[in-house]
Amino acid sequence: MKSNMIMPNAAATTRWPHATLIIGGARSGKSRHAEALITSLPSPWRYIATAQAFDAEMRTRIEAHRAARVAGWETVEAPLDIATALIEHPERPVLVDCLTLWLSNLILGEHDLPAAMEALENALARRSACTILVANEVGLGIVPDNALARRFRDEAGLLNQRIAAGAGRVLLIAAGCALPLKQPEGGSLR
Catalytic amino acids? Predict the structure, then answer.
């Protein structure tokens, strides 16, 4: 199946120096690492949550994430429109958790992926504060056995490439450890 996403330009340069993309597998420590980075900055912090609680197990996961956060967070539920949530307070540190769930929501709802991606990139360009985006790295496993899963895997890989191309920093989290894939000079979050 042909992808709706546009491949990033190989010569792409950093467009959002304040943005950090954190990628990794399930239970790798991505969210914990992202929260630690954001909370090293002065509050208030904005948490843009993309998960939807369709069942009891997911509700439990969402509540556990909320309960683990320190005071000072404003949570914004944005399963589809993270662009608007990003530009509401461009001067505040923001954590988007996670792009992969957002993508899943868009695909399952049959939304316009190129338009959503463009809106996300435009919102990132309008921000002045630290922005951390969390995403799963889903392309390290076997080839899925059905067309929807293969499309999701492909779109997630393209989304991660596109955001990584524009971000000032990219970290891969594995077993709770961060491996810098792209690092700005000086290493500042700002």
Answer: 65
